[in-house]
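Researcher: Please predict.
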Amino acid sequence: MSITTMKADSASGVPAGINYSHQLSRAWQGLCDRYLPVAPASSAWRYSRAPNPGDPEQGWKLHVSATLLNANTVLERVAPFLAGCGVRFKAPASLQELGRINSGLRHGYSQVGKVITVYPGTTEEAVALAHNLHELTRSMPAPIIPFDLRFRPDSNVYYRYGAFKRLEMETPDGLRIPAIRDPQGNLVPDLRESAVARPAWVENPFIGQSQQQNAPSSESPLSATYRVFRALTQRGKGGVYQAVDLSAQPPRLCLLKEGRRHGELSWDGRDGYWRIQQEEWALEHLQASGVAVPRVYASFDLDDNRYLVIEFIEGESLQALLNRRRRRMSISSALRYGIEIASIISCIHSAGWVWRDCKPSNLMLTANGRLRPVDFEGACPIDQPDPPAWVTPAFTPPKGRAESEAGSTVDDDLYALGAVIYLLLAGRLPEGSGPTPLERLRRRVPATAREVVTELLTAPPRQKPGARTVARRLKAALSLLETSPKK
């Protein structure tokens, strides 16, 4: 069965990738039952055994990286070996949890790739185990683990010094943080996001056989052309950075988007690298069609990752504006923004694309007062409907509605448009089960505006008004509002 596409299974009508994910998930559970029998209640992890009184409380931890698609193979290879050694190890309780770990969102960016964690009894055992684990998993695709040290440049085995048991200390401001003990027995911070990966008093026993990843060459674009000065986001699929583009005269601000190879690999075989390529394709097509998306300046590969350099749009997001105003906005302002957003989506659809990520945080309000759309990583052509990798629930049609008709991805944008206008007018998001009528939440919203928002949120996909029609009807509502006597 192919995992590079999401074609429907002819027998069930269910996307093949979904069936494949079920197969892999069941296999993972079987491996966990065999090799990881200890399953603490409400824990994201399963363990090979309970801790023994003689187990150390800290030391050199080993991490083995894997993706959703090869995690079963990795566990099947290493678990019998580790069990035979009697060493304690853990892995996620499900492949869904593994996906959350590799996203870097729920568990933190430092946890990306940490699929199997091994707790060696001694330093000598840690080094020996690393050699064997490297041989068992070499040449298998896997994301790079941030901050850990890599056993070898081509290895899926990483290591760092840290706590094996739950140790915490309290900071001066009352915050509880992970800790380890120094040689005097004092608790000190366990710095899991430090690239040093070991405290100063501990010697690295892997020196001579492990090597750090090569730093970017002095001739690489990241050192010669683009000077990164701020990380805006970091997650498994890649980072987003603010940078200065030295190739322009005068130098200009830009946004550098990174797509990591094997980062957040999904069931359909797509990773961060693929998604950056997809966004570049979408932006170039939309820009050529006159849509005011960020301009593409350049793109390049470095260390197996893909980088996209695009225009940095000065201003604040519509979400930031709403937050600053505590979601209070005049009806006329809300309608004007709604007209502009509908016009943007109309242009996107006319260009043959669907955005699939329309929300206030992806609409930038520029200095001239105009809105510009950003973040097209999930966009796809209208004639090539594609299941989204992730969604923002409040701006996504209730489950099943957008999937009820073939080629109904335009409905995703239209529902999101309705949700944004509803938020602008009501100061709250619509409930997925059935939005509260706008007339109950705010007086003087013109009937035409109320009706079009209701249709966007509740009508079947093929009965929704198009974005151009929405803009026209909102203009009529605004005109009526402005000419009606105020009471």
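Model: Residues 16-189 form a domain with the Phosphothreonine lyase fold fold (CATH 3.30.2430).
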